[in-house]
Amino acid sequence: MANIKRREEIERMYDICQLTAETLEYLKSQTIPGVTPLDLDRLANEFMTARGAKSSTLGYRGYPNSICTAVNDVVVHGIPTNDPLKAGDLITIDVSMYKFGFHGDKAASLIVGGVENRRAQKLMDVTEESMYRGIWEARADGRLGSVGAAVQEHVEAAGFSVVRDLTGHGIGRQFHEDPQVPNYGRCGTGRRLRPGLVFTVEPMVNEGSWEVDFLDDGWTVKTIDGKLSAQFEHTLAITPEGPRILTLYTDHEREMWRKEQARHDLDGSN
């Protein structure tokens, strides 16, 4: 079946996904007030190059930079600018890298300067939780629609909205492969999931309307109402034992995944 990876291919993807996660954590540590997204882009390129990797985005369909940065009302694909970040800004850093013959992809949102921003923090928390809800449903013989349904249910219960016009995607030797992975849907519908399928789950969640504007630069996507947007993304592989999160890296992420597993143990779910 197209885009199904062998076990040894998934292990090679794990290596690049871990390097992608390491790069993202480094960039998060450098995201302080006064730094510009272009500074982060430069640091990303240096970090990748020193490890013998390449950016998946640089030059991809003409994209000009090594990472994507989405600040406040930018949803995704923000081209890094020279505007200094301010304490309290909400920024999403999206890192995509190529090495070992495969691509890895991961994104996370954070609040610049670690200052209190309750609106942004709630949005981030719900977005991250919804990602793990979706990942839980990414199981052999499950359906792709169940992944999106789990994300959508959690997001909308919190009073936020899921972007409809952008999705997760298959990934492997190509940066973008089938299938598309919507963050909304109906449980039990869509493509049947098979072991060896590798894709991203990456909810893009808006504070207000789910509708977005595509800017004239051909890349930047903003919320239609100027309200905040957050995104979290993992790359995962379907295995007979359940989803394997290839970009799982920090203690916080491992704890989030343990909580999601425990939630299903408590309610008797599979």
Summary?
This protein has helices at 7-29, 37-50, 118-136, 144-157, 251-267, and strands at residues 54-55, 68-71, 74-76, 90-99, 102-111, 161-162, 168-170, 177-181, 198-201, 204-206, 212-214, 221-223, 229-231, 234-239, 242-245. It has 270 residues and is of the alpha+beta class.
Name its key features.
single chain, 270 residues, alpha+beta, four-stranded antiparallel beta sheet, three-stranded antiparallel beta sheet, 5 helices, 15 strands, 32% helix
Q: Can you give a write-up of this model?
A:
The protein is an alpha+beta fold and 270 residues long. It has a single domain, classed as Creatine Amidinohydrolase. It is 32% helix and 24% strand. The protein has helices at 7-29, 37-50, 118-136, 144-157, 251-267, and strands at residues 54-55, 68-71, 74-76, 90-99, 102-111, 161-162, 168-170, 177-181, 198-201, 204-206, 212-214, 221-223, 229-231, 234-239, 242-245. The strands form five sheets. Strands 1, 2, 4 and 5 form a four-stranded antiparallel sheet that branches. Helix 3 (118-136) runs antiparallel to helix 4 (144-157) and helix 3 crosses helix 5 (251-267). The longest helix is centred in the N-terminal third of the chain and has 23 residues, at 7-29. The chain is globular. The mean pLDDT is 96.
> Which residue ranges are poorly predicted, with pLDDT under 50 across at least 5 consecutive positions?
none
Q: Give the % helix.
A: 25-40%
> Major sheet: size, sense and barrel closure?
4 strands, antiparallel
Q: Look at the structure and give the CATH class.
A: Alpha Beta
From the alpha-carbon coordinates, what is the Rg to the nearest angstrom? 17 Å
Q: Assign an overall shape.
A: globular
Element order: H for helix, E for strand: HHEEEEEHHEEEEEEEEEEH
CATH superfamily: Creatinase/methionine aminopeptidase superfamily
The CATH topology assignment is Creatine Amidinohydrolase
Overall average pLDDT: 96
Give the structural class.
Answer: alpha+beta
The CA-CA distance between the termini, in Å, is 26 Å
CATH architecture: Alpha-Beta Complex
Q: How many helical stretches?
A: 5
Strand content: 15-25%
Integer count of domains: 1
Strand tally = 15
